[in-house]
Design a protein that fits this description.
This protein has about 200 residues and is of the alpha/beta class. The chain is built from seven helices and seven strands; from the N terminus they run H-H-E-H-E-H-E-H-E-H-E-H-E-E.
């Protein structure tokens, strides 16, 4: 699986324009949704379980995941408080609902902080072939979300490694990869990194 994941990352990374051409938070993200589409489909083809998305904003990525989930008879479980802590508030949540309306029958929405006990229960009680971790851009939140997903068998993607917290999220990514023994792929031309997880 590591070879397939690496091939997808490399193919799309080669098409990413230089980071300096964009705002810091946009560098490495121009082809991100194309990578995520292929990576999520690879996970659904090879592992049991649904798709988990932590941090949804207006639902553009959620719609991609839902399209794939429908194709493979799975569900999408989303966790986002839309409470104004980062970019999401009630108006953003309404945009999310409009963007994902055609898939509302297969999307389970959980309006809560991903670091909350309730969110951890949602994650631990589910089975996820693909996890997309894109919550709060702090080391504590990122590490908490990765830890919450530990035990899931499949592919996990962690966003914002290339710019957030002065490189601290990238350090978190590698630290927990070593702690859990995950195979991992991160190309610095991209914003996100990937884990291949085989369970606890």
């Amino acid at each position: 699986m590591i070879e397939e994941v690496s091939a997808i990352v490399t193919r799309w990374a080669e098409q990413e324009p230089p980071h300096e051409d964009y705002a810091p938070h946009q560098g490495g993200s121009i082809h991100q949704r194309s990578r995520l589409r292929e990576m999520a489909e690879l996970a659904l083809q090879n592992y049991d379980g649904d798709i988990l998305e932590i941090g949804c904003h207006i639902g553009l990525t959620t719609s991609i995941f839902a399209e794939l989930a429908k194709k493979y008879d799975r569900r999408v479980v989303v966790i986002d408080p839309w409470n104004g802590l980062q970019e999401g508030d009630e108006s953003v949540y309404q945009e999310f609902k409009r963007a994902t309306k055609q898939y509302e029958d297969i999307i389970d929405v959980n309006r809560m902080l991903s670091q909350s006990p309730e969110a951890k229960t949602v994650i631990s009680s589910g089975k996820f072939a693909f996890c997309w971790i894109d919550g709060l851009h702090t080391p504590f939140a990122c590490m908490t979300d990765i830890r919450s997903c530990n035990g899931q068998i499949g592919i996990q993607a962690v966003d914002d490694l290339s710019w957030s917290s002065e490189g601290a999220l990238k350090e978190c990514f590698y630290q927990l990869a070593n702690q859990y023994g995950y195979e991992h792929v991160y190309d610095e031309r991209c914003r996100e990194g990937y884990y291949i997880c085989k369970g606890k």
